[in-house]
Amino acid sequence: MKGTEHIVVLTGAGISADSGLSTFRDADGLWAQHRLEDVATPQAFARDPDLVHRFYNTRRVQAAEAKPNAAHAALARLQAEWRGQVMLVTQNVDGLHEAAGADVIHMHGALARALCAACDHRWDAQPEMSLKDACPSCGTRAVRPDVVWFGEMPYHMEQIVQAVQTRDLFAAIGTSGQVYPAAGFVEEARLIGAATVELNLNDSDMSHAFDEHITGPASATVPDWVDRLLADARG
């Protein structure tokens, strides 16, 4: 895309679907076995921490076994070859972008990290976590996954919003566009006249807000899109 120097890419669960990680909407995935209110809120953790830990222990194992797909590799290549800046932001808590070689900002935290609810200390999580675990900093048994639950503020928001408001191109990949504040990023980008593109398996609730909409599996559409961007930049 000629005239483009600085890019923000937001990715969601759809980019990891071809790596075997289920999304909220998969009928037979892990999320289908639990209500969000029971495993992904601060209230759920206060009510039944054992259930929440078991749920995220299972997710952690699944994520550790997954491999990056062609979409993750393509975005890592875009960061490596683009002449300007590419900020990659993900709503995902898996580590597939890093495994593909990308530099990524996790706005919803990471399964591979643990958080002390008492002192906010963070460290690398064990494959299995429980209420018996003590914080290595303060010793309190208040360990939880370092993930952002519904009702909590996403991480790095000031940095992300500033980037969206100053970049030439905003791309959303594999995200439904239903959850704020991420759902508002495209409007922020449009306000400054940035180009916008959505790559998704199907139309989303925010498709109408994008200049360009590309449908299909991320493992197919993202590499083609990256190839086109790099070719346009060279030409």
Q: Tally the helices: what do you get? A: 8
Fraction in helix: 25-40%
Query: What CATH first level of the largest domain would be assigned?
Result: Alpha Beta
Q: Compute the number of structural domains.
A: 2
**Alpha-beta content class:** alpha/beta
CA gyration radius, whole angstroms: 18 Å
Order of helices and strands: EHHHHEHEEEEHEHEEH
Please give a structural write-up.
- With 235 residues, this protein is of the alpha/beta class.
- It folds into two domains: 144 residues, TPP-binding domain (Rossmann fold, 3-Layer(aba) Sandwich); 74 residues, SIR2/SIRT2 'Small Domain'.
- 32% of the residues lie in helices and 20% in strands.
- The chain has a six-stranded parallel β-sheet, with helices on both faces. A three-stranded antiparallel β-sheet has the order 5-4-6.
- Helix 4 packs parallel to helix 8.
- The longest helix has 17 residues.
Question: Key features?
Answer:
alpha/beta; Rossmann fold; 2 domains; single chain; SIR2/SIRT2 'Small Domain'; three-stranded antiparallel β-sheet; 8 helices; six-stranded parallel β-sheet; 235 residues
What is the fold's blueprint, element by element?
Elements: E1 6-11, H1 36-39, H2 42-47, H3 49-65, H4 70-81, E2 85-90, H5 96-99, E3 104-106, E4 109-116, E5 122-124, E6 143-147, H6 157-164, E7 169-173, H7 185-191, E8 195-200, E9 212-215, H8 218-234
Helix pairs in contact: 4-8
Write a concise synopsis of the structure shown.
The chain has 8 helices and 9 strands. The protein is α/β, with parallel strands linked by helices. The radius of gyration is 18 Å and the shape is elongated.
